[in-house]
Design goal:
Elements: H1 6-64, E1 80-82, E2 106-112, H2 117-136, E3 139-145, H3 158-172, H4 177-186, H5 198-206, H6 214-223, H7 227-238, E4 255-258, E5 261-262, H8 271-285
Helix pairs in contact: 3-4, 3-5, 3-6, 3-7, 5-6
Length: 309
């Protein structure tokens, strides 16, 4: 057996070590490259996710500040004005939002929510009286439907949907608005319930005699055409945008102004008290003799030429 020189054996071991070292180095280099690739992929993926999230947030924000669009016809100031013979005063001839309407008639302004129980109480006590004043020409009434109680109907937003329905009538059949307003309060659901469905709302509204453009109103209710407008008007009113309200603080619904003077609700709400307030407010703002309502309760609640206590 031939023995290899010791130097040759040592050289062979060194060669094997060097080869192993080089293989290990190549493996480490490849591993680092793979790790860098993974990190780069993660960074790119994360960047895409963040960009997509930012885009979604931007779209949501843009959508949230999108204007509500034009409101219903005949409600340019947020409410509709009803005059003699219970006919709507068209937008072109509607009085500006001042305390009086400039004609000498008493101007009654009401901000109402169709789910508000106190609004319903005021309606039951004073609707016939207000109707007689307006029908005869002794007064005008501005009705502003708002939705302050949208969160009080088990998630159905009844206040908003009912106010939208009223706005649909103002847009398509304004001369029947007063009758529709009366009908909505006659069918007022209790606060805290789900309220009427859209189908039930439609039946209440379209059941009013003389209503025009029933199919257009039905579609308007189904599509909630003016719901965003109602929502924006409600925010504005609650924020104090109420012409004639001297304090600047919205006291809640119902808010009733007579010739710019706020009527303080009584408990219980009575027609006698409101009649007296109307006559007092009318007298306080009169500069010339004009027809004013009587404060004396009568069966017909008809107006008289001069106020009487």
């Amino acid at each position: 057996m031939t023995n290899r020189p010791e130097g040759d054996a040592r050289a062979a071991r060194n060669e094997r070590r060097e080869a192993a070292r080089q293989r290990a180095q190549r493996a480490r280099t490849q591993q680092k490259r793979r790790q860098r690739g993974v990190r780069l992929g993660l960074q790119i993926g994360l960047g895409v996710v963040l960009l997509a999230a930012a885009t979604i947030v931007t779209l949501v924000l843009v959508d949230s500040v999108k204007p509500a669009g034009p409101g219903p016809a005949n409600m340019s100031q947020g409410g509709i004005t009803i005059g003699q013979d219970l006919k709507a005063v068209t937008a072109s001839s509607s009085p500006a939002p001042t305390a009086t309407d400039g004609s000498g008639a008493v101007r009654i302004t009401m901000y109402v929510d169709y789910l508000c129980p106190t609004c319903g109480q005021f309606e039951r006590a004073n609707a016939d009286y207000i109707e007689s004043l307006v029908d005869s020409g002794a007064a005008t009434v501005d009705i502003h439907p708002i939705a302050t109680l949208s969160n009080r109907s088990q998630g159905t937003k009844y206040s908003l949907r009912a106010a939208n329905a009223a706005a649909c009538v103002a847009d398509h059949s304004p001369d029947q608005f007063f009758a529709v307003n009366t009908a909505l309060f006659a069918k007022q659901p209790e606060q805290g319930t789900a309220g009427l469905t859209d189908a039930q709302l439609t039946r209440v509204v379209t059941g009013v005699d003389g209503l025009q453009q029933r199919s257009a109103i039905t579609k308007c209710i189904d599509d909630q055409t003016f719901s965003k407008w109602v929502d924006e008007r409600t925010t504005s009113v609650v924020g104090g945008d109420v012409p004639g309200l001297s304090s600047g603080d919205f006291p809640g619904v119902p808010l009733v102004l007579v010739n710019g003077q706020r009527y303080e609700l009584t408990s219980p709400i009575t027609n006698d008290d409101f009649r007296t307030f109307v006559v007092t407010a009318a007298g306080a703002t009169e500069s010339t003799p004009t027809p004013t309502p009587s404060a004396t309760p009568t069966g017909s609640a008809s107006p008289s030429a001069t106020p009487s206590e």
